[in-house]
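Q: What does the predicted 3D structure of Phosphotransferase look like?
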Amino acid sequence: MRTELDAVAAAALEQYDFSPEAVTLVNVSENLTYRVDDRRTGRSVALRVHRPDYHSEAAIESELCWMDALREDGAAEPPRPVRARDGARVVTVVDARGRARHAVAFEWLPGRAPDPGGDLVPGYRVLGSIAAKLHAHGSRWRPPSSFDRYTCDYDTALGPQARWGRWQEGLGIGRPERDLLARLDGEIAGRLADYGTGRDRFGLAHNDLRPANLLVDGDRVQVIDFDDCGYSWYLYDFATSVSFIEDDSRLPEWTAAWLDGYARCRAVSADDLAMVPTLVMFRRLLLVGWIGSHHEYAAEAAELGAGFTRGTCALAEAYLAGEFLTPSPYRSR
């Protein structure tokens, strides 16, 4: 499998004007990301190879379109895409199974993600302010008529055709787990329906704004990986920022810091605050499905395994009892 995927990356690189003397796989998730070093010129890029049937070429171009607008308007500094020899920003190759695979090369940015073992409170405050700026921009920006990005709502995340995998097919799902998580699912569905999708709370967002998608270089902080950008609840960006670590005892501190940073740039209502636990559990249940559908090739999913489902059940019990991430620790000051 690895040889086949590396061949796709090599075929994509043939369409660019640089000599890839060193190609290193750095991440496997929805997509594959390689670091490509051209030692002749000293240039490095990040090559993202998309998995089949995830985003269309038009959807990827739309992602790049919003990144352009954010950069031009000074709302964020996402990496610039590198054009292929023919001027294209999205290249397409055919893999060994005859499937079209899209790829994009981005400039390689300096910096590192925040240290997960360190004090993440300052980072979450920065994440909150960045999210607010992205949302403010997305709410006023008028995309072109060709703009095509998905919507992340209950139906696409947890419904029968769940985009990231059905939680019912997650790892370690037996009868007790299914019954408990079905109750959780129903509660989430009801609360999201009551909250609604008004323009003040639902719109264009990053949708994967984790600390791992920040690059810190001195005083400069840049956001990367807009691959999941689309339309969702704005505070879902907080839920994504605590992906896989929703059971950490520091969650209330991170929540308070994120909301503090967010509220300095964009208003947060009492209704918004009340929805934070639900959006976190919405994301957590989505990830149960993601692990179930990705564990055979994504190392992170394989490592989390059935233990993530057990942890989700424990969180579900607390949430259904009204004891998960209660509003008081992070009420606006």
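A (community wiki): The structure tokens above were generated from the sequence. The mean pLDDT is 93. Residues 121-330 form a domain with the Aminoglycoside 3'-phosphotransferase; Chain: A, domain 2 fold (CATH 3.90.1200.10).
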